[in-house]
Model the fold of this input.
Amino acid sequence: MMATMAFAQFDTPEVMLNASTRNAPIYEYREYQPPARADVSSTEARRLIEGRQPSTVATPLPIQHQIASQLDRTIATLNQYANSPAGGNSSPARQALVFLCSLPSYLPAPKAAESDSGMVTLFWDTDQFYADVEFRGDERLSLFSRSRVDGANQDEALDDYPIGDAVGEWLNTHLGPLFPRLHSKAA
Amino acid sequence: MTDCQAFFEQLDRDCAASDTAKIRGQRLREMGEGRLQRLLDWENQAASRYSPGPVESKEAIRKALFNDRDVVDGCLHRNAFLSLDDLGLSADRTEKTTADATRKRFENLASSKRRSLYGYVDLDVTFLRAQTTKHDDKIPNVRAIGVYDTATADNGAHAEAFLIVEFSNTRPKKSVQADLLDKYKSQIKAYAAV
Done:
């Protein structure tokens, strides 16, 4: 039973801050419910996309950095790129954020990188696969993937695909097969 | 002055005169008939008046790696090899300079680019020159990367690697970059903080 319990305030920084402002007990046990990743990412990312200030302002604590998920770190990185002088409403980083929000929950969160030309890339790299999705700020993406199953490389590339169309079955086709174990578990 | 030197010096002048640095790789690949053989021959000629000599295949070239561009959370990214296609993959010949001098240059580069320096990777010139167009079944299978001694007045050890073929589409080009990624992802070195 203990394995299913967790400190509620560690679910998200917002939960912890709300608990503090309401004078709620600092440590409150409750049945652990994994955060709904799609909801967290979309709420957070949409707030960043729309440029609104967060409802609660606080200086991040070191421990929050340590426990931040890969998704949190990627969103923070993209937000940093989006707020750079080259950023804007149509910046590659903001379009990458929109794409990130559309990812199915069974996919691990990608890392983000930025090239010298301002192109933003989301990428995954494990023993079995490598995949990256590039954003140049023109509402289109380019995808490259390499499957390394059984020691043989199988590469795929797709250029200038509308970001808005890269949802649903498209994601299953181009990224889903790269995570067969997780994918079948989620299905 | 050889044709090779004249070409690279003209390229430097053109790039300095306008914001067309990206065309460097493209200019190499647009030299018309006999281009590929010429580019292969040029590997055996000095490409710069400041060069100590052509880059030999037994050498290694050290490439700077920057955080959030080439390396993210300790993971090498394909971005590290993007410049093969356009600007030219810039590196230092390890046998022609010292590790300290290279680090100093990399730190200056990081400052000028407003990047955070992660460290470096040593690329085996033999491996670079062994890359072919095998990923592109629409063109003949030939060498894909050339390495040249593009020394500068400030850095006699400077070298550059370029894609020397025009692929039929982006996938094989990215496959070559992914081959380099797979080869070197476990060989990146981080600089210790000073």
Q: What stands out?
A: DSSP finds six helices and eight strands in chain B. Chain B has a mean pLDDT of 93.
